[in-house]
Amino acid sequence: MTEKVDKLERGEFIEFVKGLILNSEQYKRDNESDSYVIALDSAWGTGKSYFIDLLTQSATDDTLRIVKYNAWKNDYCENAFEPLIYDILTSDCLSFSMENEADAENVLKMISHIGKIGLAMGKQLLFSATKDKLGIDVEKAFAEVKSTDNPFKNFLLRQSQELAEINNERESFEKFKQFLAQSTSYLKDSNQKLVVIIDELDRCKPTFAIQTLEVVKHLFDIENVVFLFAVDIQQLSHSISSVYGQGFDSVGYLCRFFDYIAKMPEPNISNYILESISSIEAIGEMSDISIYHGDKQKRFYDILQVFFQQIYEVFDFSLRDMDTVIQSYKIMVNNFLFNHYNIKAHMIYIFFLSLKYKQPNLFNLIFINKSPNKNYTENEIFKRLQQYFIKNVCIQSAFNFIYKREQLRECTFTLDKKGVPFKIVRLDNRGYLQVAYSYNGYWMESSQLVNVSGYSLSNVLFFHDLKVWDDIKNMTYREYIHKQLEMYNFFNAESEE
Q: Looking at beta carbons, which pairs linking 332-338 to residues 24 or more positions away fall under 8 Å?
């Protein structure tokens, strides 16, 4: 595994979680449970999986023996028990040797018990659900059927053989737990903990998620074993409610399983962004460029970091959203933006890239005048955009030019800090512009060539845009930006109404 950098500055929280695990014997809610179960609660896309990698990476002193299990990758299985026990058995955390005759015999018996448990899962969960949902203890009712006139008598009599099988399967449950306890007994002597980390449970089918919780509670309740569930509690509770009904106390149900719910702290997003963009080689070459921005001279890197943070806040991004946009921006930089040393060009493309990702319907309304629901006037579109406005001169200028219907060759531009308006006539092979100035209401071509290298034209076009002037001059600004962004798509973009 590639070594992770703590980009989110969660080192203190890592130590906190490790302390919970190592001292779990002190923190149990009751004496009935042998294992300890922690919920690491955080919304989707907030860095839970990244945190797990950092936690695993930090466990270098052999006090934690870690098994990582991705529930989502296994929810195609018929039951939740078999893939989980497979990952545990195939790890190096259990103490047994197939060269030892007694161990080999125990393993063979274990395989037999695992098979029986796998077959029994459906029935056991059905009986458990019946009791939880209806208050009917099927097995107790069966035991009383001979002495009482029970309404389920006929049904229970028909099921007598299956219920007898369940008793045999329960014996397998106990044998299985004994084997695991024996295989993990070394942990106590060495002051170690077996930590089973279960990730992505909140993305699983609701029935599979419930099965996994029940399996952990009933089959893996073993001393010196700690389970760490990386979940979105709110999302998981919705999944449970979809099975048991909206009136079901899903939060209370979850609280039965977890000894402690640890809330993931908010990340240091500024540091995270800086670490992420520093991996873009072309941006690294610009890192020391000093730019007059606002009232101060600032580095290209620093301005870009602050702007991404604004994007994160304005669009209400998660960390996963931020990663997705930065990765697409990286591709964009490597394809054409590496030529744009003007920070304003990067801001424009980052903003519209973020809009395309977060609000694809609104993006389509702006750039191709398409809506899946209704037609909007430009004023209506503008109002919907206002919530995403950033107090940034180049973004405001970009919006102004988007609503101009003129082709670029008909648009009026100004240079940075030079307020004289002009139209572009042509570009020569040295990068100089032939322009036309307004004079007494007429546009007059100037005999003087204008060097635009290093400048922006009205904060929306840049020197490298003008190198393809003959290809773009008959486009509107809206058409040009859309063409630049056309190949950068997002399969998982959220569709807004």
A: 332/488, 333/280, 333/282, 333/283, 334/280, 334/282, 336/464, 336/484, 337/282, 338/282, 338/285
